Each structure stands twice: as C-alpha cells, then as structure tokens.
Amino acid sequence: MKIIIYKLLNVDKKTLIFLLTISFIGLLTGSLFMTTLSGSDKLLVSNTLNNFMEHIEPDNYLNYLFETSLINFVSVLFVWLLGISIIGIPLVIIFVFIKSFLLSFSLASFIANYKLNGLLIGVIYNFPHQFINLILFIYLGVYSIRLSIMILHSVIKLKSLDFKTIMRRYLLVFIVSFVIILITSLLETFLMPYLLKLLMNVL
Fold first, then answer.
1. Mean pLDDT of the chain
2. What is the DSSP letter of 85?
3. Environment class of 43 (CB within 10 Å of its CB; exposed 0-12, middle 13-18, buried 19+)
4. Is the separation of the CB atoms in 192 and 125 below 8 Å?
5. What is the rounded CA–CA span in Å between residue 4 and residue 10?
6. Which of 45, 90, 94, 198 has its Cα between 20 and 30 A from that of 22?
7. Residue 20: pLDDT above 50?
8. Based on the number of CB atoms within 10 Å of its own CB, is 80 exposed (0-12), middle (13-18) or buried (19 or more)?
9. Are 144 and 83 in contact (CB under 8 A)?
C-alpha cells in the first residue's frame, strides 16, 4: 500500500512546478479580472451572487449532487483522456489555468460585492471542495502531460512503450481521482450550503 501511494505521489517535479506556475497565473488573473469589468458586468455578477445567497440550499439535494458529480466526473475524464492523446498537453495547461481563474474570480466577486464579509463567504463557498479539486486537477494534469510527452516521444523516435504497465498506473490515477472528486462533490452539496447558511445567520 505504501509503495502504491509513493508511486502515485512521486510525480514529475518539473511538470508539477510548471502547472503550479500556470495555476498561480490563473489565480492572479482571476482576481484582477474583476476590476476590469464594466459597470453593467459588475451589476450582473452582483445580481447573480445575490440570487445565489437567497437560495443557498438546493431545492433537491440528490439532483444537485448528481449534477455536481457529473460535471466533476466529466472534467476528470476529460483531463485523463487528454493524456493518451498527442494534442493533450496544451489543452491540459489551458484547463488548469481556467480552473484557477474561476476559483480566484469567484472569491474576488464575493469580496467586491460583500466587502470584508465577502472574504468569509467566498472562502466557505470554495473551501474545501474547490481547493481540493484544483489540487487534484494539477496532480492529474501532471500525469496527463507526462503521458502525452511519452507518447509523442515514442512516435517521433519510433520507440515502443510498455503501454500495459503505463496504463495500469494511469488507470489507478483515474480511480483515485474519481474517488476524490466524489468526496468533494458530497462536500459541495451538503457541507458548503450548511456552512454558508450558518455564516449568514451569524452575519
């Protein structure tokens, strides 16, 4: 078991640092993008947030869980499948950037709309599920990019790959990612609305 965990966590450090840098750029861009919006766009964001805060609890928890889990699962499957395609590298990079951008933008939107209280609301809205998801997609992205590079290198150099061994490990990465995304979907569905409602009662 320890060997399996070590193999899963022992990712390529250069690729990890690269994706962390992309994620940082996405977080920075998302936080700054809010300040560049026009008055009408800011009003639209404000109305969307106010509508969300008025309906924090889902009308149907099971439907919300299904929809959330489906979106998250498709995202995991998308990044995972990109690893076995040569064109996967730029798409994974873009995906990680977008996920980071959206996380930062949502937090900045809450702060812009609700000031200091918005910081607390934004953190609870995104924590821990969105933070865990971002880390997961960076982690999965490292594996996806490395596999794409290996396939590309094999095609260019006309060398064979031990595809069976590689895919066995890559499939394990997918299973672990699926379990984690299911847990974060449960947190988003049941924990986040409860904490937000509790915070709003305090505020």
1. 89
2. S
3. exposed
4. yes
5. 10
6. 45
7. yes
8. buried
9. yes
